[in-house]
What does this fold into?
Amino acid sequence: MLKIANKLDIKTAFDEKIGCGGEIEFENCSLHSFFNYSDFGLDAWNKIYKNLDFSLSFISDQLTCDCNMAELFSGGTAIAIMNKFWRQMKDYVCERPDELNGTKLIDIYKTNSEKQDLLICNITDSCPRKCHCFNQPSHDRVVVDCQGQNLQTMPENLPWGNGDRLELLLAGNNIQRMEFRPYLSRVAELDLSGNPLSHISEIAASVFPDDAKLNATGNKLSSIPRHFQNRNPIFLSLGGIFITCSCEDLWMKTWLSFYHEDESHTSYICQNLGGKDITVADFTSLHCSPDTSKLNIILGSLACFLIVVILCIIGRLFLFHEIYIIYRRRLRRTVRSREFDYDAYISFNDEDDQQRKWVLNNLAKYLETRGHNLFIPVRDAELAVARDEYLRSRIQTSRNFIVILSEKYFSQDGDGTEITQQTFTQFEFNIIWRRYRTDMRRNLIIINFDNLSASDIKNRWVKACCRVGEIEDFTERQGLLMEIIERKMSPPCGKDN
It folds into this structure.
């Protein structure tokens, strides 16, 4: 049986195109299921039609229609587009599972959409003993069914799947405590109905999502965690909770008063105050102080808001440059583009013989042998032109910028020759920086040729780059420097996929 693998763990970039419109044919192959999208370096099936520019052709009458197949139709992709990629799609017939035997795949999405619920994959890894776990893309969920298995405690670990919603069915067991479990933070529905549940821990309630549904009817609860005051009671189905009310339970009266009684699926009864619902029970006999919990929440929120505003102001005044450099580093792109004439513009103090020899004999030679088209002013600039405008146009048409930072790159000390050269390097950097800031496609690579510290650098932006580690050191990393530079650059403009 044919099996597709991705042993090199190749990843497909967001807008990268693979292929050139051809067709891959699988003849006389025992294909029983569709490929997994990770085999193509993708992180979701619906990207296959955008990133892969070819089509697949194979014929099989023994298809297993499972969750992998369901994901082919995710994202609202048009049937016509899928037919173009999967050449025989209209002829695919499901053999397994038995409920879909003889059903055409295309009919599941055209005329029998209710059968999409049968496109599931069983999960065995990390599935608790006695439980049934499966991935169901039609509802974007992973279901863990442990109903009626005489469990004494909640499972310790649950599996991961392709769905965003985790539904845990624990009805009809013997669970007495809802305790903290790491997976509670990703639960969308939890069914604990029919269990002698007597306690819900505060930490479990704190990680349980505010919009997740909890069904615990038939319980033995006499209180609920206070953290539930942050959620809408409509998501709680607890049946009847009989409470010996005290002043500490006033928060529930305040909490429930914000919602209509018919929205709640639970009755909170004060059994020591006439057996009345807590929203109408009279707490006067308990001589309670006014509940200030809501006021404390409001004041705490205002305090947090003011702190955030103050931190933003301080960051804007003193750390704006560093924050921006980190922001651009996270957005660095290495995507091929044909919109530029040059892959990189190299700016350096060309009056320095050592720098000039290293740039021309080492850096340029390394990058150009790998297909990069470079513009180096001292080598490539035409003499009989207005230099300012000429260099400006070359910077405009360059995708990446490589700056060789040295003591004299920004310095104005020295004789007239150095001052003239500094004028051009300062001019180049100003134009480079403006292009870099206004065009997110461009990358900036700074090489610290003279091993300068942040205090030695005059330019505020370059100083910020040094402080956040966005400058490559020439002396300490020379062995890997060329590879680091090429890795930060985009692929060559003129190089085909």
